[in-house]
Amino acid sequence: MSTVMVVVLVEGLSTSSTSSNTKKSTTIIYSSTDIPPLVDVPVWSMATLNNDASNENTTRTTTRTTNMNIITYVTPISIRPNRLYAVGLFKKTLSRENFLREKTCILQLLCDDEEQNHISCVVKVLGGQSGYDIQKQNVLQESFNNNDHGSIDELQDLTSSVSSSEEILPKVLPGCVQYLKLSLVGNEIIEYDNANEDGEEESSSHDIVICKVDEMWTTTSTSTSSSSVDDEEEVVELEGAPKKQQQKQQKYLSTGRLRELGIITEQGRIAITATAE
Questions:
Q1: Where is the composition biased (Low complexity) (predicted)?
Q2: What is the mean pLDDT, run by run of 10 residues, along the chain of 277 residues?
Q3: How far apart are CA 231 and CA 159, in angstroms?
């Protein structure tokens, strides 16, 4: 059932130095809607470690694979004494399971740049399929090895860049605008359950976790060339130090851009028939 509320505002305007006034009225109509505010927010990918090579008989140095997803429910909520983020984790997903077990992840701010193929490859693979159904690291790696059109470059290793040399991190996508290493604050998640019209308990689609930013990285690209033009090589370095202000930041991918391409709906859901070209 739709609800309409009408508000009439009356404003008195003086038209002369005498006591005569002219009244102007404005009518504002408020209508209920099921479409949320179409705000433009950043699109991230959460990288987490899978549990495929970690048990009581193995060490954390054993090679472990990485799972990634697409996530837009990411909001900064504090900057002092630590930067804190609130993150919405979709229930019944491998990303949620991995994060709650490891209590850490890498958030990757995706790039709106055709050369990085974050739209054509990353969103389609990571946002449209479950980590329970496919091994996403292998899918991305196979795309790179086969040199498929629209594929990304090889996944990168951040472990050597982290402050703790003993910590093993998930692999990351190349060419992201920024990388944030997050850790869970406390041991609890925020769950919301609500009774439906029949009085039955109905769980929300997402859980909320509060995370602390442990480290941040940006990327810089440098080119080196020899005497031959064909030998030009691009080197990407991950750095923790802030960049100079005159250095232009890459443009990040946003939900507005994905709506424009028909990849997500106005309700914020992945469009089943959408294809990223």
A1: 219-228
A2: 60 52 81 85 96 58 84 95 95 94 96 74 80 89 68 76 76 93 90 68 81 90 47 44 52 91 77 48
A3: 29
Of the candidates 231, 191, 185, 228, the residue with the CA atom closest to the CA atom of residue 210: 185
Contact residues for 210 (Cβ-Cβ < 8 A; gap 6+): 77, 84, 85, 86, 87, 184, 185, 186, 190
Residue type, 244: K
DSSP state of 125: H
Peptide bond into 81 cis (omega under 30): yes
Tell me what pLDDT residue 231 has: 41
Characterize 59-89 residue by residue with b for buried, 16 or more Cβ atoms within 10 angstroms of its Cβ, and e for exposed.
eeeeebbbbbbbbbebeeeeeeeebbbebbb
Instruction: Please work out, in degrees rounded to the nearest 5, the angle formed at the alpha carbon of residue 23 by the alpha carbons of 17 and 29.
Output: 155
Torsion of CA 194, 200, 201, 206, to 10 degrees: -70
CA-CA-CA-CA torsion for 240, 246, 248, 249, nearest 10 degrees?
A: 40
Strand partners for 29: 6
Half-sphere exposure of 70 (CA within 13 A, CB side): 26
Distance between CA atoms of residues 9 and 58, nearest Å: 71
Number of H helices, E strands in the chain: 4, 12
CA distance 198 to 54: 43
Amino acid identity, position 252:
Y
